[in-house]
Specification:
16 helices; four-stranded mixed sheet; 428 residues; mainly alpha; 4 strands
């Protein structure tokens, strides 16, 4: 027996979670701003010797500016959500798609494409302001307007090339499997398998064919650093497709390092901005931290968790899809498979916001484990120095509100993280 929800129930639940989500996000943002502002006048004791007051205050002002923008974004995105749902925006887009094309799958593709286009255009002003006003004010933006426009164009083109076939296959499967009632109504299982396959394909292809469309990747030329890294890789038993340097300075003054890809296409990537500020031993420590994620199988575990959560999401969609109340309760009257996909994905963040701390807790746990791995195979002091430099060059706040951190921070707070590494030094 299938449990159905009435339109009124859906409507009340949506408004309840919507209000809680907005108020929660705004409340946490204000808490973060107050915590940062309260400590702006003095450097935390753990960093007095390594971070100047001017650098600390720059990080505080940068964080406060980002939080102000974030609050505007929360309100703007919330307004858009109401316009698209209860305001009839999705119905309007559905009418346009039906007017332009006749085939049901084509209508669905046009519907989702129109939504993506409108959403992208409306998001441009904030994206522009973030890069050319906020980031520029604090000396981080290196992007030209030509690069900004080119990135938008290339991103849209890739979304079409990759997303169009995936969307067509999903809509085609939904039409065939639902009509034939195959898999006992569990059509969402087949759709989930397709989505997982596409996700793995993208992870495999990203470093080789997609990332180079946006940045230049060159093999590491520093012989001393490359030798040091190769020795570390040998000690840890890690194999990669190469050690690359990315021209991150074309867009930003922020520094970073990361791993990407699957199988033989795994790559180690350093931002050129990171290498400019780091000693060889510090780069080795940063890399050892990243290797710790692979040694503890964090990437694999996170991928499995993501796929399981996606399976649950598709199962819930399968339960809601035949329920008329799901659409009318959210202000939609043009019912279709594409509309079900679009509407569900649009409102999903509203209902999942209360669960945000769960993923953050797991991520911070993984970061601590990776730090301990780095302390074992490199040097904890070097990692402390490297992290402190990253906090300075990226203007990362050394202070964070405890509840804001629990909800949003994927990495431990600066003081907490450094204290754990100092404990590792003493243990040695």
């Amino acid at each position: 027996m299938v449990f159905y929800l009435s339109a009124q129930t859906i409507y009340i639940l949506f408004l309840l979670f919507f209000i809680c989500s907005i108020c929660g996000q705004l409340y946490l943002s204000v808490r973060q701003s107050k915590a940062v502002l309260a400590h702006r006048s003095h450097v935390p004791s753990a960093f007095v010797q390594s971070v100047s007051l001017a650098e600390h205050q720059k990080a505080a002002d940068y964080t406060l500016a980002k939080q102000r923008l974030a609050r505007y974004e929360i309100l703007f995105q919330s307004l858009l959500l109401l316009i698209f749902t209860l305001g009839g925006g999705l119905d309007l887009l559905a009418h346009l798609s039906q007017k332009w094309v006749q085939h049901d799958i084509a209508q669905g593709i046009v519907l989702i494409g129109l939504f993506a286009l409108v959403n992208m255009i409306l998001g441009w002003p904030i994206a522009w302001y973030r890069s050319f006003c906020l980031e520029a004010k604090f000396g981080f933006n290196k992007m030209t307007m030509a690069t900004f426009i080119a990135d938008q164009f290339k991103g849209s083109l890739i979304a079409i090339i990759v997303g169009l076939p995936l969307l067509y296959i999903i809509l085609w499967l939904m039409r065939i499997l639902i009509a034939a009632n195959w898999f006992g109504g569990a059509w969402w299982l087949a759709v989930w398998l397709v989505w997982v396959s596409f996700s793995l394909l993208l992870m495999w292809a990203f470093p080789k064919w997609i990332a180079p469309l946006f940045n230049k990747f060159e093999l590491l030329k520093d012989d001393a650093l490359r030798t040091r890294i190769e020795n570390l890789l040998q000690r840890t038993g890690f194999q990669s497709d190469g050690i690359f340097v990315m021209d991150g300075s074309r867009r930003s003054g922020h520094g970073n390092a990361y791993f990407t890809g699957l199988g033989k296409h795994k790559r180690i990537v350093f931002f050129d901005t990171l290498l400019k500020d780091m000693q060889i031993s510090e780069v080795e420590a940063v890399l050892a931290h990243e290797l710790g994620h692979f040694a503890h199988k964090h990437v694999f575990k996170q991928m499995i968790v993501t796929f399981i959560l996606a399976l649950i999401v598709f199962a819930v969609l399968g339960w809601l899809l035949p329920q008329t109340g799901f659409y009318t309760g959210l202000g939609v009257h043009e019912v279709s498979h594409a509309m079900a996909l679009l509407l569900f994905m649009l409102v999903l963040p509203v209902f999942t916001f209360p669960f945000s701390p769960l993923s953050s807790v797991l991520s911070r746990k993984n970061e601590f484990e990776a730090d301990r791995f780095a302390a074992k195979y490199a040097n904890a002091d070097d990692l402390i120095h490297a992290l402190t430099k990253l906090y300075r060059t990226n203007a990362s706040s050394l202070v964070s509100d405890i509840w804001y951190s629990r909800f949003y921070d994927s990495h431990p707070g600066a003081r907490e993280r450094i204290a754990a590494l100092q404990t590792a030094v003493k243990a040695d």
